[in-house]
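can u do me a favor
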């Protein structure tokens, strides 16, 4: 009974479960489980960055072992800090720079939760989430040089239909940032003062 209890109490989980722990802690009620399957999703990228920072911190224990079980060890902060370290969520693995191959990894999810609650990973508001989604959408639109871009007001109406929690201010900021990222200065030129991006 004690052995069974200890087995059930194992606090170590794979990267997919750790990803979901971060998502639920950071995004709360706005968390969308399906974003784990979409690497281009803004929430997906944000969760991965936070999870990596947690492993870099040295405050969240993690262990790994090679797929052939011949090698194993603690996943150190410097391992997570390597340029080629990455999460391979579809297989529930991480790519270990030192081994130069994917390995199985288990992350201490209770330490992860404590780190998230005590660190600067601030819960995102629904408006912030909508703004991130809107930004990705605008970047995709503005990046297509052949596409006819509607006036700002029409674009804002479409954005608010797509992202119901998007505020006017969040749209304005997302549009300004999307113009900067895509270098579409033509969209911010004078001529339509009402639609211009202000401070």
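np, heres the sequence
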């Amino acid at each position: 009974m004690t052995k069974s209890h200890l087995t059930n109490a194992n606090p170590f989980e794979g990267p997919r479960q750790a990803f979901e722990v971060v998502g639920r802690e950071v995004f709360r009620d706005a968390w969308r489980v399906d974003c784990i399957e979409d690497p281009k999703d803004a929430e997906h990228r944000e969760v991965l960055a936070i999870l990596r920072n947690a492993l870099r911190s040295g405050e969240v224990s993690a262990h790994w072992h090679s797929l052939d079980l011949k090698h194993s060890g603690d996943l150190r902060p410097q391992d997570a800090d390597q340029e080629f370290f990455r999460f391979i969520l579809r297989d529930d693995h991480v790519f270990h720079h030192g081994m130069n191959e994917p390995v199985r990894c288990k992350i201490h999810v209770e330490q992860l939760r404590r780190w998230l609650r005590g660190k600067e990973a601030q819960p995102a508001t629904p408006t912030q989430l909508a703004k991130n989604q809107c930004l990705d959408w605008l970047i995709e639109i503005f990046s297509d040089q052949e596409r006819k871009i509607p006036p700002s007001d029409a674009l804002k109406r479409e954005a608010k239909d797509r992202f119901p929690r998007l505020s006017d201010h969040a749209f304005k900021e997302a549009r300004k940032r999307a113009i900067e990222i895509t270098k579409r200065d033509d969209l911010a030129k004078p001529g339509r003062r009402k639609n211009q991006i202000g401070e």
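The longest strand covers residues 101-108. hope that helps!!
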